[in-house]
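#onboarding

Welcome to the new folks! Below is a worked example of what a typical request in this channel looks like: someone posts a single protein sequence, and someone else replies with the predicted structure as tokens. Don't worry about understanding the tokens yet, we'll cover that in week two.

Example request:
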Amino acid sequence: MSARVLADFPSHLSTYGTGPRKGLILHCSLAHSGVYGAMGQSLANTFSLIGFDQPGHGRAADWTGEGDLQDRVTEMALDLLTEPLDIIGHSFGGTVALRLAIERPEMVRSLVLIEPVMMAIAKKDTPEVFAALRHQLSDFQSALEQGDRETAARLFTKTYGDGRPWNSLSAESRAAISERIHMIGAGHRGVNEDFYDLIGSGALEAISIPTSIIDGGQGGPAMESVCAGLERRLQNAQRACIKGGGHMAPLTRPEAVAQEILNFVSQQPAK
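Example response:
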């Protein structure tokens, strides 16, 4: 790992593999760029991947709340798009990957979206499903608003964690997640609202980049609505499911996710 300033924001880089295909991996909220070691190892002969810590995560500088979080992460990613890359986006990282495909399509060779949390699609396509998800997360939202970070973290990871019970996590892991949980609120409008007018403007329909949409098989109606809505809108998209992987499939089933990515890129040109 190495320190790097991206879009005037202090961050840290992680690299995976030495393969011929160059790519960028965008991590999920509450994690950092270094969590994908097992998946990266499975991709190492095909990919040379680089990732960066998003604001408030890993070794990046803290997020002050100034500006818009998804805008800033997108700007940081654009600093690394100096040549066409394969983009792998997980969860919140998947929403940023879509921004890159819209803003710099000539620099995005392919897209892999792993459980992309663009819940605004579910809100648009299946409002009853979106409403049910919001109800499911209402206690989390209340705890977050009240500043009870540990309770908010416990409730959030029940839906978007790796399947392990909260009390089974180490004290260090619980503290790290609790410390970062406010970042979920910071990214709210980029996830739950069509704040950047990607849906209303038809920008998603303009994406012709080859895309693989991967789900972990446990996301329920909301994630299915998002993935199906993206598949319908994008011109060149395909679906894959990692059964039993859950939202954190790159960590819970890294080899299976890597194999799906390898199967997908084997169909795409290297340049």
